[in-house]
Specification:
The complex is a heterodimer of chains A (313) and B (255).
Chain A lengths: L2 E2 L1 H8 L5 E4 L8 H9 L5 E4 L4 H9 L3 E6 L3 E2 L3 E2 L1 H9 L6 E4 L2 H13 L4 E3 L7 H4 L4 E4 L6 E5 L6 E9 L5 E2 L7 H7 L2 E9 L2 H6 L4 E3 L6 E4 L17 H10 L3 H13 L4 H11 L3 H4 L24
Parallel strand pairs in A: 1-15, 2-3, 2-11, 3-4, 4-7, 11-13, 13-15
Antiparallel strand pairs in A: 5-6, 8-10, 9-10, 11-12, 12-14
Helix pairs in contact in A: 1-2, 2-3, 3-4, 5-7
Chain B lengths: L5 H11 L6 E4 L3 H11 L6 E4 L3 E2 L21 E2 L2 H10 L5 E4 L3 E2 L5 E2 L2 E3 L4 E4 L6 H7 L2 E5 L26 H5 L6 E5 L3 E5 L6 E6 L5 H5 L7 E8 L5 H11 L8
Classes of the chains: A alpha/beta (313), B alpha/beta (255).
Chain lengths: 313, 255
């Protein structure tokens, strides 16, 4: 069994100077892990993620990161990420190095990293200034034709943190909904922490093995953390808390408000359970408000297979 | 005649432009409402593809972002980001895609990266996201933007995503860019196509009540005007009813 608390998992597996990927395409964004990294005052991290989102805005404001590797830095559906903007535009609170790709460029970096390739080709960046400002995006001759094609190098984060609906205690992790680039990010990383809404028996996992996107083979720690992706969402478990996305747009415009928010909601909370309690005290019906209705999939039959006669002729 | 907002004008015009299309790559906000309006009017067989990894979405509510869970529930297929970008987009299966940008030049090239110098930007914008690949691979690109001199600029501060590049014939193909590039820009005041010879933006349709001069005043270069320029047909009562009662009842995007 690999079950740890979030405190133990971060203390054991995330070190100053590491490259860290907390992935999730607008869904399954593990704020619980981000907050614990801030709480334990990790610094000098290289943060990798297609869509940095609120969690990296908060980590960068808290001084955890020296570099950002990304493809789209926005508050999804709301506007800009103000802390990242301040860091890039004004070196406030400190300079932030950036290494920038397009979405498919980031995906291809994870694919190369996860499958042991020295680079991965994609048809992109033609007529774009991105290769000019990021020399790691290069063009090579097509060995089978006359054209040239863009390539990107592998991305192998020291740590990937992946949030999902459920896993067993050994880390066989099942996810439904927008799976984003989590599988590739996990297989590319040296260390994998999975964070789940529920820990289930291995029998549950084995009942629908197509749902398992991350096998125990690559998992180092399993953390049980209900509501750990708030204010983002977990398909079928809770909805996005759009009120907070809108609130962050206001808070994050002012560095003092950001500091006060981090003090109150991260440093002054002991752990994520404490954060969830605090949310519930402010809004007792929060989880009712965010509870999705029921929409069950049809059960399916994987079959049971009896031994067959083997013909040795 | 019923009153309508500039956003409702943009939604209705964008929806009509989807007549006969089948596979559309949708963005959040106005394009999302336009695509859902098209599905209920001119393009009932339209399949909605979202960057987050959905084919054949059937959203029950107005999505809060392109990754909204309502896009998963009831969709025909949900896939990973790698599959979406390789098997759907790079393979050329997207017929039309909607894009917006902070800066657009006369050839429909797009900047969503920085205002000012890249190393020391005045404004750091979100970046490419999928736009560079969408602009490369969608068979056609439609743009939605509000007309202003700040957006429609002579020279981009940064070339994030390719339009018609420098406007030279065969330039996209010579570089190996498969899609045919920008075909239409829908703004709050007018519609633009791209002239066949110059591949430059050309004013083709005016919102009723708007003049060519009004439009020129919001564009940083002398804009080409189509000889057969005409006034748009305003949004119909039925289009407005669908927008106001079904697609955006709170007026989040269309007010």
């Amino acid at each position: 069994m690999k079950i740890l608390t979030m405190k133990e998992a971060i203390a054991r597996h995330v070190h100053d100077g590491d490259s860290v990927a907390i992935e999730g395409f607008t869904a399954f964004i593990c704020s619980a892990a981000a907050h614990e990294i801030i709480r334990q005052r990790r610094c000098d991290l290289t943060l990798c993620r297609m869509t940095p989102d609120l969690v990296y805005d908060q980590m960068i404001a808290a001084g955890c990161a020296s570099k950002l590797v990304f493809s789209y830095a926005g508050n999804p559906g709301v506007g800009p990420l103000h802390c990242i903007r301040r860091a890039v535009e004004k070196d406030d609170p400190h300079p932030l190095e950036i290494e920038e790709y397009s979405h498919y460029g980031m995906i291809c970096r994870y694919i190369a990293g996860s499958s042991g390739l020295p680079f991965y080709p994609l048809r992109s960046y033609l007529g774009s200034d991105l290769p000019r400002v990021n020399p790691r995006i290069r063009f090579v001759d097509n060995p089978y034709g006359d054209d040239r094609i863009a390539v990107v190098p592998p991305l192998n984060p020291d740590v990937a943190i992946i949030h999902a609906q459920r896993a067993d205690g050994n880390g066989n992790t099942q996810m439904w909904g927008f799976r984003g680039v989590q599988k590739e990010a996990a297989f590319a990383a040296k260390t994998v922490i999975v964070v789940v809404e529920e820990i289930v028996d291995e029998a549950v996992i084995r009942s629908d093995p197509n749902l398992t996107i991350i096998p125990e083979l690559i998992v180092d720690a399993v953390v049980l953390q209900p509501y750990g992706a708030h204010p983002s969402y977990v398909q079928g478990y809770y909805d996005r808390d759009n009120k907070f996305y809108l609130a962050w747009d206001r808070i994050s415009r002012d560095p003092e408000k950001v500091g006060a928010w981090l003090d109150e909601w991260v440093h002054a909370t002991v752990d994520w359970e404490h954060y969830v309690d605090k949310l519930q005290k402010e809004e007792p019906a929060i989880w009712e408000r965010l509870a999705p209705g029921e929409n069950l999939s049809e059960p399916l039959n994987y079959g049971r297979y009896a031994a067959q006669e083997v013909n040795h002729d | 005649m019923t009153d309508y907002t500039p956003s409702e004008f943009m939604i209705a015009q964008s929806a009509r432009a989807l007549a006969g299309e089948r596979i559309v790559f949708v963005g959040v906000g106005l394009p999302n409402i336009a695509c859902n309006l098209a599905k209920r009017t001119v393009a009932p067989d339209l399949e909605l593809v979202y960057e987050s990894g959905v084919f054949g979405a059937r959203p029950e509510r107005l999505p809060l972002s392109i990754g909204d869970p309502t896009l998963v529930s009831g969709a025909k297929s949900v896939c990973s980001s790698a599959e979406l970008f390789s098997l759907y987009l790079q393979a050329g299966r997207i017929e039309v895609a909607f894009l917006g940008a902070a800066q657009i030049d006369k050839f429909g090239n797009l900047n969503t990266t920085v205002i000012g110098d890249y190393a020391k930007p005045k404004v750091r914008l979100p970046g490419s996201g999928g736009a560079c690949e969408i602009a490369t691979h969608a068979q056609k690109v439609f743009m939605i933007a509000r007309l202003s001199k700040r957006t429609f600029v002579e020279t981009l501060d940064f070339y994030t995503s390719p339009g018609h590049l420098n406007g030279r014939e065969g330039e996209r193909a010579a570089l190996g860019i498969p899609g045919s590039g920008p075909q239409l820009i829908v703004t709050d005041m007018a519609l633009f196509g791209f002239e066949r010879e110059s591949r430059e933006m050309i004013l083709t349709v005016l919102r009723p009540g708007v003049t060519v001069k009004d439009v020129q005043d919001q564009i940083s270069w002398p804009v080409r005007v189509a000889p057969d320029i005409r006034d748009a047909d305003p949004p119909t009562a039925e289009e407005l009813r669908l927008i106001r009662e079904e697609l955006d009842p709170d007026g989040m995007y269309s007010k």
